Amino acid sequence: MSHDAKSLEAPPSAAAKSALQAHARELGFDTVRVTQPDAIGGAGDRLLAFLADGRHGTMDWLETHADRRRDPRHLWPDVRSIVMLGMSYAPENDPMDALADTANGVVSTYAKRSDYHDVMKGKLKEIAGRLERDTGLPVKVFVDTAPLMEKPLAAAAGIGWQGKHTNLVSRQHGSWLFLGAILSAADLDPDAPERDHCGNCSRCLDACPTKAFPAPYQLDARRCIAYLTIEHKGHIPDEFRAPIGNRIFGCDDCLAVCPWNKFAQASHETRLEIRAELDNPPLADLLALDDAAFRTRFRGTPVKRTGRDRVVRNCLIAAGNAKDAALLPSVTPLLDDPSPIVRAMAVWAFRRLATDGERRAAEAARGPAEPDADVRREWESELV
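and the corresponding structure tokens:
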């Protein structure tokens, strides 16, 4: 080969990046871009401020690995490039419409389908394997399973920007992207970051039912319905129960109102199709689930990881908010549930659905005999 011909060849890193991007799109990823491990700027300092204010609630794992999360090189010292990949899960319909049918539970759009970790991990490993072969250098693959700040990295790579709701927003895919990361020891050409396009819009902040945003670009997870219904393991504070409405797993409000969603095309990944058992399921059906039935119904979905007791707790809050006496026969048996967090919310829902006579009789018979102090307080509290 002549010297002139060699000069026309793409550098190995450029060729590897081009092949990687083509391969990723073949496997169903909607966007793939590259950044460097030192590109997230002040995101690490913002994380420390978030933790110092206690806004992470009971998510202790955020604090435990804060130093590693602030800098990908603390996670893997050999990293030279980070490939960020996005897969759309944009819904066909407006998720907010489901809130009107209070006899049904509303599951967050991301969780209405097979677990995205399972869908993406194998594809990422295949892409990473090819990148490793093309560059001769090692790689590591992550899908929301390591102390890595995926959203700031995706913004640095130019996939989108972190909106005022702190989630990633894309001009092509709105607020509906699953993110995965491939860390490589190879030097790949980085892409330009995306600038913030939120402007004066505050729809996401205004839509939050529990006022979980102290200021634009700041989240207090302790007030977030997604945190309360998924991550929070204890009793949900009374002030948040009515605003939860019939949201039984997560909350899409701040995502769904984003104006950039108008450019998003519905997800085309067949393994991310919405599952019927997760699409606005009747509360009465969910309240009847014991642990075995729960595991069977939600196998392979994000809902299963949260567990039967917390999900039924959430369904009881939705039943109480529905104020539909037809749900009372589904609620009443749960007054004797083995789990205190279930019994407590069964009391809360029962007292809102029962007649005055039924309520007084149950309070007299059950309240004094209840062994758990938190459940007793639910019997004794003023009815709001």
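(Above: one complete record from the training split.) The first helix runs from residue 3 to 8.
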